[in-house]
Specification:
The protein is an alpha/beta fold and 507 residues long. The chain is built from 15 helices and 25 strands.
């Protein structure tokens, strides 16, 4: 079942097991059960630490991952291949006694949960976001006997997943809990658990405190640390929105990578320096005091620093129509510069008649077969010069008064449904990709007017990346920088850190 290369990699990883693991499997006569049995037997043959036994579990085919003397609550319902194979390997290592790569404070939070919590996560094996959730909840189950978690492959258990509209879909004690990518910190926060503020309040003041976890943040933190400055970074998660990117092909010197791989490399680079990484945390306020710049975290802890670099990024505005979550990165895209080449020779649609939408359509017209620009108003909001260019292009069609209502497709986009605002009639465009260009939302809500922003909420910066608050700098997509690109954000982060260094030596 496993190819030669994968077996070689797995064999090396299984050597890291520190104790015995029992896989208790529930089979029937189905093909999927036979597939699961083959997989588990193959894995067991590769390590003396692993044994397989049969029993009847709640779902079939499924298996639990336990210690010989204790249940962990970790169950896989289905055959965890594809993106979930890593979840299985990690579960084997952690159940065997391999310590998790989590801060002790996070582990303490997990262990402190004192009520029964039964999680179920519906996944798709092709979903690149699902493993993060599965691995987080598996770890919580391993660390706390009050917690159990079952991964459920929706493709196998179709009756249960019939009403699931997006994966990963997490249920807690039978009730809907959350959708989309969730980190351990996200889950703990949703459960009402917060990190102890005392461990943050006691930290020495920083020279440079970076707020955010994306490319600009990582670059700023590394450049600050390289200057010998006491550097900290407060991040919801390292990588930020890049984690949601399926493919990256425009980061110069790296021909091709994925968002999760890029984020992992960024995290490793940050960890190579003496940087105090406070991940799983968000800032809630910032103010300048006589003692320095004080940043309040969402657990009410306070950090003090001589300078701050804000790089909290931005998030794409969503259409919030059926099919958007399910088909994101499967034809639903948000960056024509990044993803346009992936649609070479295909028919696509662009939703949005402003400058971003018009520029996207013009950009894509040189790559794809045909572009349909969809605007819900009876006029385009783009600059006239852009509209003129659009009208000159033979492979661009403009639809006005068209209200997008549904993305069509199962495993990938096959079309876009829209409603004619004049007639009320419903129509369908057959396309293989849809680029949503209705703007970005900068993550500046937490600033509460502390620094000057434009009407879009973007932080206004000067050529040195300084904001309106002395000692506070900003970089990346959270600013009024025109081009929102990974490589530009990284350069901006470096510039902001160097400006912070200059500020420190002059003040």
């Amino acid at each position: 079942m496993l190819n030669k290369e994968l077996k070689s990699q797995l064999s090396q990883l299984l050597e890291l097991m520190e104790g015995d693991v029992v896989l208790t499997a529930s089979y029937d006569d189905s093909d999927k059960s036979k597939e699961l049995k083959e997989l588990l037997d193959e894995i067991a043959d590769m390590s003396s630490h692993i044994t397989v036994k049969e029993d009847t579990l709640q779902r079939t085919p499924s298996f639990s991952v336990d210690r010989p003397d204790a249940h962990t609550g970790v169950v896989f319902a289905g055959v965890p291949l594809g993106h979930e194979f890593n979840s299985l390997v990690l579960a084997l290592l952690q159940v065997s006694g391999r310590p998790p790569k989590e801060e002790q404070s996070v582990i303490d939070q997990i262990k402190a949960l004192d009520r029964p919590l039964h999680f179920e996560t519906f996944i798709s094996l092709s979903c690149h976001k699902c493993p993060d959730v599965v691995q987080a909840l598996n770890l919580m189950s391993i660390l706390n006997p009050n917690i159990t978690h079952t991964m459920i492959d929706g493709a196998i258990f179709r009756e249960e997943s019939e009403d699931i509209m997006a994966v990963p879909a997490v249920f807690l004690n039978g009730e809907e809990f959350g959708n989309g990518r969730l980190s351990i910190s996200d889950i703990l926060g949703m459960l009402g658990s917060k990190a102890d503020p005392a461990e943050f309040n006691d930290k020495e003041p920083f020279d440079v405190l970076v707020i955010g976890g994306g490319p600009a943040s990582g670059s700023a933190a590394i450049y600050a640390a390289r200057k010998g400055l006491r550097t900290g970074i407060v991040a919801d998660r390292i990588g930020g929105q890049v984690n949601e990117t399926a493919g990256i092909e425009n980061f110069i010197t790296v021909k091709e990578t994925t968002g999760p791989e890029f984020s992992a490399a960024l995290e490793q680079h940050v960890e190579a320096y003496d940087i105090d990484v406070m991940d799983g945390m968000r800032a809630s306020n910032i103010e300048k005091t006589d003692d320095g710049i004080v940043v309040t975290l969402d657990n009410d802890a306070k950090l003090t620093s001589k300078t701050v670099v804000i790089s909290t990024g931005a998030r794409f505005r969503n259409l919030n129509i059926p099919g958007e979550d399910e088909l994101r990165n499967k034809g639903v895209a948000y960056c024509p510069h990044c993803d346009g080449p992936l649609f070479k020779g295909k028919d696509v649609a662009v939703v949005g008649g402003g400058n971003s939408g018009a520029e996207a359509a013009i950009d894509l017209a040189g790559i794809v077969n045909h572009v349909t620009l969809v605007e819900y108003k009876d006029f385009l909001r783009a600059d006239e010069i852009l509209q003129e260019r659009l009208r000159e292009l033979p492979n661009v069609e403009i639809l006005k008064n068209a209200q997008s209502s549904e993305f069509l497709g199962d495993s990938h986009v096959t079309g876009l449904k829209y409603e004619d605002n004049k007639t009320g009639e419903t129509h369908q465009i057959d396309v293989e990709g849809v680029f949503v260009q209705i703007g970005l939302l900068p993550n500046t809500e937490w600033l509460q007017g502390a620094v000057e922003t434009n009407k879009q909420g973007e932080i206004l910066i000067d050529r040195n990346h300084a904001t309106s608050m002395p000692g506070v700098f900003a970089a990346g997509d959270v600013t009024d920088e025109h081009y929102k690109q990974i490589i530009i954000a990284m350069g901006a982060g470096a510039s902001a850190a160097l400006s912070a260094f200059d500020y420190i030596i002059r003040n």
